[in-house]
Amino acid sequence: MTTIRQRRVGKGTEAAEDQPSEETNVKPDGKIPPGGKLWNILSITVGGIVAISLGLLTSVYVATLHENDLWFSNIKEVEREISFRTECGLYYSYYKQMIQAASIQQGLHGLVYDNKTESVRTINILERMNVYQEVFLSILYRILPIQQYLEPVYFYIYTLFGLQAVYVISLYVTSWLLSGTWLSGLLAACWYITNRVDTTRVEFTIPLRENWALPFFAVQVAAITYLLRTHLQPAQERLTLMAVFIATFLFSLTWQFNQFMMLIQALALFILDCLDMLPTAKVTWLYIIQISGLLLVCVLQFFNSMILGSLLISFNVSVLIARTIQKNLKKGGLLNRLGKLILHVLLVLCLTLLINKFIKKILNLESDEHIFKFLKAKFGFGATRDFDANLYLCEEAFGLLPLNTFSRLSSTLLFYIYGFVLFLLTVAAVIVAFRNLSTIFFSSISGSNQVQLKEKMEEYTVTLKPDAAYSLVHTVLFGCLALSTMRMKYLWTSHMCVFASFGLCSTEVWKLILKCLHLYTSQRTQVIKYSIPIITLLYISFKFWPGIMDELSELREFYDPDTVELMNWIKSNTPNTAVFAGSMQLLAGVKLCTGRTLTNHPHYEDKNLRERTKQIYQIYAKRSPGDVHGILRSFGTDYVILEDSICYERRHSRGCRLRDLLDVANGHIMDGLGENEPDLKPSLYPRFCEEIKKNLPSYTMHFTRVFQNKTFHVYKLAKHK
């Protein structure tokens, strides 16, 4: 088991004006005085320098934490590779494979016709997995004259840490665009850093797909925020659409869960468009960009059927079709429009399901069925004995967001301010939506009452321009995702920093608050707009700076001698063509460290692989030695690795241990005290991983132990004729 030890010494919104920052220093004739233009240039320059500086500092910060935690510069190569745990090691192995290939062409051929990732099968890695970033980076490393100055592993991890700079700068710019002041961006970046535990995990899961993808997603959100500003020039709009497309494409290319994240984004656009809070033309362009970006990725991934069968493509196409059918959706009175909206939503939903089912039927697509089984079980639509669904349900990362997350976020004041801004803008959004849907409702109110009501509602609409409206729905939907699935919290918490800082630095928000308190003056609004964020920044700096310094000074060391011993033994004592079976997580490391062939691996988005993994995992179930031997040999297995940490697992409670999941799936009673379902029966055989260690004849005729230490036991399989 890997441990870290102390280092030994040695519409309503469409009609709104542009951001207030663009309206300051403007004469009545619309011209900006020379002094105002100079001040704007100076402000943009300073804000840009601060953004770049914070981005670079964040990169250095996470790189230093990674070095201090593992002593990465001092440990051996095998230890560095073991530190890339589970699927991280699998992805990095393809970068290593491309680097070590005789040529770029041979490296690419090895990926397209790969027969070492899944034994007795040849698969196309570029089709199955999102590893184009590893391919691009390996080619870049080979052609740049840096080999004698920089090891391949450092080129890889420094690129990922460099992307953190892009991430922070994008969050900074998004907040700046929303609020009109770069002070908001500074606050967003500081919150991102001080809440690092909940905003990123890049320093200990470097090759994870989300660490490649989320910076591009942040760039896309920043570009969308700019696109939704009013009064853009045609050239500005075209350039922004191009930026959105490039960011969407790169995000889609680097993460297999891209379609689900963009589906949530499309839902946000759909909701706002239905409520007439975004320009329809721009929303249409964003739908088209999502579809085209995903289809381009589909082509690059050799027409990956999982992409073609994604809900995102079906949903976006359905929205465009439904909008063509219902041309007068945004005309009429309140009740009329509500009726049309309900019909529109039902039409889109039905079309989405029909189109998606049709595509999956044509393509015979079953790659993503485990996700829907998991969701069905997670949200209480019936219990399941499905092994794959339960494997996800029992993992903490796919559980509900822990409550202690909110206490950590509150310690930096982030959650308190976020909640306040969220409440205020949600109320404003409801009022804006009601006004947009009530074009005829106002005509029924006569005289001064109508004027007073409209003036009162105008006070609220000024706080919710299109970009702010999008940011609100974006954070609500991704918040719901994070609350339901902890692993997805990083999409929410980073935008939480943006949203809270925008609210704290927004002229419109403070203007609304002061008007409600009957304390509004322009000067008071400006003073509060800048003083409160500065006070918040001072508080964060005073409270967390010493902790950050202590964190940077704490030195640890990577320590996993059992796994190192196992990998060294495999490299020294087994042929290069040997096939290994074991847990998905461990086998990813076996491939990276030794280059041996695997029976299964952690990239779970393939039905055949999921079925294969369930069969391989019978080594931890109650099965006869003959059955287990037959299963393993059917996949060409030469060696099987058993882990005590799985066989005698205590990390999960009864019912969620891997052996329990296998017992239930096999119809057997689980071990230990507790209830069992009535139809489960005792197994005729003891647990394989325990019984094999007794060296009974019925086991030794099939398996010979060739290696063992405190953690691992390796057995060689007999090759019966």
UniProtKB/TrEMBL annotation:
Family named by the database record: Belongs to the dpy-19 family.
Basic residues bias: start-end ranges: 1-10
One Pfam family named in its UniProt record: Dpy19
Transmembrane regions listed in the UniProt entry: 41-63, 176-194, 214-232, 239-257, 263-281, 293-321, 341-359, 413-434, 468-486, 498-521, 527-546
Recorded name of the encoding gene: Dpy19l3
Cellular compartment(s): Membrane
InterPro entries: Dpy-19/Dpy-19-like, Dpy19L3
Protein name, entry field: D19L3 mannosyltransferase
Keywords: Glycosyltransferase, Membrane, Transferase, Transmembrane, Transmembrane helix
Membrane topology, as annotated: Multi-pass membrane protein
Principal localisation: membrane
Region (Disordered): 1-31
GO MF annotation terms: mannosyltransferase activity
GO annotation, cellular component aspect: nuclear inner membrane
